[in-house]
Design goal:
Elements lengths: L8 E2 L2 E2 L10 E8 L4 E7 L1 E6 L9 E6 L10 H10 L4 E9 L2 H14 L26 H20 L1
Antiparallel strand pairs: 1-2, 3-4, 3-7, 5-6
């Protein structure tokens, strides 16, 4: 059951809190009714620090859901358009669910670069920025190998045509 307005879609179905599982975030695309898009990432859960209990000195931590249900990206222009045209003028789609922050950052960058978001006026994205260490993306090795094989196949087909 969807408990928020204009739900995120993942694999053609609304994404809910029940779908989070052990994922920490996702890479997404938001598209407005005019076809303008935004690629970004969003953390699903966050740690909140609570004061220590009475008589104790150690602060407590609590893991809570982030504001992902109401989130429309960090682009000021995009958020102004959401306020002006309403949330139902935008389609929000989850592209990748991620188990690690490094994977999420890498996949966001990959989507932004392959779609040329900085060169294409059809995107709200105005900046691409990332710092990732090799150890942060070890879980993506299989995905990267598969992606490279697909790209090599496409290149061979294009050369034949």
């Amino acid at each position: 059951m969807v408990d928020y307005e204009n739900p995120w879609m993942f694999n053609g179905k609304p994404f809910t809190s029940m779908d989070i599982g052990d994922n920490i975030g996702f890479v997404y695309i938001i598209e407005d009714v005019h076809g303008k898009k935004y690629i970004g990432k969003k953390i699903l859960m966050s740690k909140r620090r609570l004061p220590p209990l009475k008589g104790k000195t150690r602060r407590r931590t609590k893991i809570v859901e982030s504001d992902w249900k109401k989130y429309y990206g960090s682009s000021e222009v995009l958020n102004e358009n959401v306020a002006q045209y309403g949330v139902n003028s935008f389609q929000r789609t989850v592209l990748h669910l991620c188990k690690k922050k490094g994977e999420m950052s890498y996949l966001e960058l990959h989507e932004q670069i392959t779609r040329n978001v900085l060169f294409d006026d059809a995107y709200y994205n105005g900046i691409v920025q990332v710092k990732i260490h090799r150890s942060h993306v070890q879980g993506l090795k299989e995905w990267a190998l598969q992606t490279n094989k697909q790209q090599e196949s496409f290149s061979r087909i294009e050369n034949i045509i």
